[in-house]
Amino acid sequence: MNTELRKRLFRLNADLAGSRLSAEDAIWLACDLLVAEVDTPAVVELATASLKSTYPPEAAELFEQVLAELGIEPMTHQEASWWFARDIAGLMAAGELDRQDGENEMRAIGIELGNIELMPGRLSPAEIIRAADDRLRTWTA
């Protein structure tokens, strides 16, 4: 599996933990996994699901099966919060998201997923990126 597919897989894993999984994104990822010759039974079932009639809970259940078949543990809320925080901190550090908006997003993620370390003022964007990388390296190894 190439790096881009692996990143999308982990992003959807975080979306699943945060109850944000898009059925459409999960189905398209499954299609791309099939093209990459990752053809487990759950990948095939998810890839052949209808974009119009597959609802997020159904997609989530199939995506959990995909993760299991690939030997990937579903992310916890804590792990997902660091995954999302790393993306936000990266945008802030690159100047693509202003500090106030980034802190508001961090606060929302911290509250939603129960991670007090993401509350504004606790860590700088660079510290969040480092902390997230350390944690995610352990969790996604």
From TrEMBL:
It comes from the Bacteria. This is Tellurite resistance protein TerB. It comes from Lentzea kristufekii. The lineage of its organism: Bacteria, Bacillati, Actinomycetota, Actinomycetes, Pseudonocardiales.
